[in-house]
Structure prediction request, 244 residues.
Amino acid sequence: MNSYNFIEKLGSIGTKVSKCRLTYTPLNYPSHVDELKSKTEYKETLQNQLRVFRLEIQQLPFTLPTRQGRRVYLNNLYDELILQRLSLTAEFKQAIAESNKCISSNSTMISQYFPKLIQKKYLTMARKAHQRFYFAYELQKNAIGNCIAILQSCALNDGIEIKTLESQANSRVVTDLSSPELSYIFYVLLEKISIDNKFNRKNFSKIIASNFSTKMASAPQANQIRKHFTQVDASVKSRVGNFF
Prediction:
């Protein structure tokens, strides 16, 4: 099993149009593309695929002999899982919305033009298909979580740090400031509020670099931030001065 293909499948709630041929005019409703029969059966299928995925990841030291190669591969897989989890949620919401809309519109029509028996059979089939979206989403989301745990465990055992799109996106404040402006504005602010004029500039620069982006860099360097605490030109000082 190819890991990327498995992850891509986990990120999709495949839908198709099924037909309830109870009349000469087929009544349609959205259903899962794989026509899932039961939650238990689908859970077993995903568990078997997870075992294969785990084995592939555990064999990385043999298939990718360099640690740098494994680091890149694990980080790419991790980011792909984060993206597919977002995709899964978006597709699930769309599938549920389409299912609700279809059931609502058709139930109104058949209640007016068809016997109650046909209405009952249609709604039963359509709602069962509707329920399959829910358990498919739940199981696939859990499988993505299991994949993430597998990657984290293998990376930890290999001494590899996983830096993900999720952590990068959630941990930084995006600014329109240049690196010198970002550095100097915090330096001036801390000078105004700090009771210790000899505050640890090295640690302070790391905090800024880890939590803010600049106009030109999504991840500025801490040493550059520290340098620009004091080494800035008059234009930077003038613009920062306007903020106060």
